[in-house]
Write a structure and sequence with these properties.
The chain is mostly helical and about 180 residues long. The protein has eight helices and no strands.
Length: about 180
């Protein structure tokens, strides 16, 4: 019987996508935190759009560094081939981000993201596109949120199952020598 472990010696498309998105998220979190901290020290309006989207400045300053920390650690453990620690920090990062979004949605409940964007003057182009359809967007917003949250949770379950059953994951993280 031929040993197929050599076929799975590379991380594979799913792990590469997770790694790429983790790197992009870490870069985005770092830039956002640096800008937020420097602007708050300069006495400027600390991301006026963010303050209208994020309900609480303290929550923002706790959730963003935690997510960044988890992103960096899951990338380190992914490329260090430590499956349990990779999974733990990957799911922690996703759950912290999801809880942060949920807390903000409930805190800002009467408003939708579309109201916030129009009121904040986020972009004249976006507001000119959103304003005519604001009634329809407000009506479908709860369905959009529920579908998005359930989709995210479903994706996490699919990732969990994939991490448990994939031969490529087992070979990449060195769990089996005879995959």
């Amino acid at each position: 019987m031929k040993n197929t472990t050599a076929n799975f010696s590379k991380p594979g498309i799913v792990l590469l996508l997770i790694g790429i998105f983790g790197i992009l998220n870490a870069i985005g979190d770092t830039v956002t935190l640096i800008l937020a901290i420097t602007q708050s020290f300069e006495g400027k309006a600390f991301f006026s759009f963010f303050f209208q989207v994020f309900a609480d400045k303290g929550l923002f300053l706790i959730a963003m560094p935690l997510t960044l920390f988890c992103n960096i650690l899951f990338l380190v453990f992914m490329f260090g081939r430590k499956l349990f620690l990779f999974q733990m920090f990957f799911f922690a990062s996703c759950i912290i981000a999801l809880v942060h979004v949920l807390v903000n949605l409930f805190a800002l409940y009467p408003l939708t993201i579309f109201d916030i964007m129009v009121n904040a003057g986020f972009s004249p182009l976006i507001t000119s596109l959103i304003s005519p359809t604001l009634g329809l967007l407000k009506a479908t917003y709860p369905v959009f949120l529920v579908t998005g949250i359930l989709g995210c949770m479903g994706l996490l379950v699919v990732c969990f199952i994939y991490f448990k059953r994939s031969k490529r994951i087992a070979a990449w993280f060195g769990l089996n020598s005879t995959v």
